[in-house]
């Protein structure tokens, strides 16, 4: 038996999902972070974040079309993590690393938290 | 897929949604 593995398929699907997000096609939720609004697909959010998985598997919350995050969440940190969910690319800036890491802890994105820890360790001169 | 002869296809797998119409 033979099987053809399309090696780019996962990234091609993600690219298309990101284009859909950018064009606001079939986005089904608005995430409110302080006063900033982010449109996204619930399925992508819950596939990447333990917090969103818990929210959208709750039958009382899964139909909400707007979710407010804790006001302590930094909108810039959230924007970087949302971009990561849709692109696989995490932009780590030293000035924002704590905001990104705290937001990743809040969103329960454990592997991103580990990566932030490693980034902080590697950039600490001591 | 153990025991299956897997052939790698490196090109695009699906159509590309345009950035904007």
What can you see in these coordinates?
The complex is a heterodimer of chains A (126) and B (21). In chain A, strand 2 (29-33) and strand 3 form a beta hairpin. Helix content of chain A is 52%, strand content 14%. Chain A is α+β, with helices and mostly antiparallel strands. Chain A contains six helices and four strands; from the N terminus they run βαββααβααα. A three-stranded mixed beta sheet of chain A has the order 3-2-4. The radius of gyration of chain A is 16 Å and the shape is globular. The mean pLDDT of chain A is 96. Chain A starts with a strand and ends with a helix. By secondary structure, chain B is mainly beta. Helix content of chain B is 0%, strand content 24%. Chain B has one strand at residues 5-9. Chains A and B meet through strand 1 and helix 1 of A and strand 1 of B.
H/E order of the elements of chain B? E
| Ends apart, CA distance between termini of chain B | 40 Å
Total number of strands of chain A: 4
Structural class of chain A: alpha+beta
Would you spell out the secondary-structure blueprint of this structure?
The complex is a heterodimer of chains A (126) and B (21).
Chain A: E1 2-6, H1 9-22, E2 29-33, E3 36-40, H2 42-48, H3 50-56, E4 66-68, H4 75-87, H5 97-107, H6 110-123
Parallel strand pairs in A: 2-4
Antiparallel strand pairs in A: 2-3
Helix pairs in contact in A: 2-3, 4-5, 5-6
Chain B: E1 5-9
What descriptive keywords fit this protein?
heterodimer; A: 126 residues; alpha+beta; 52% helix; globular; B: mainly beta; rod-shaped
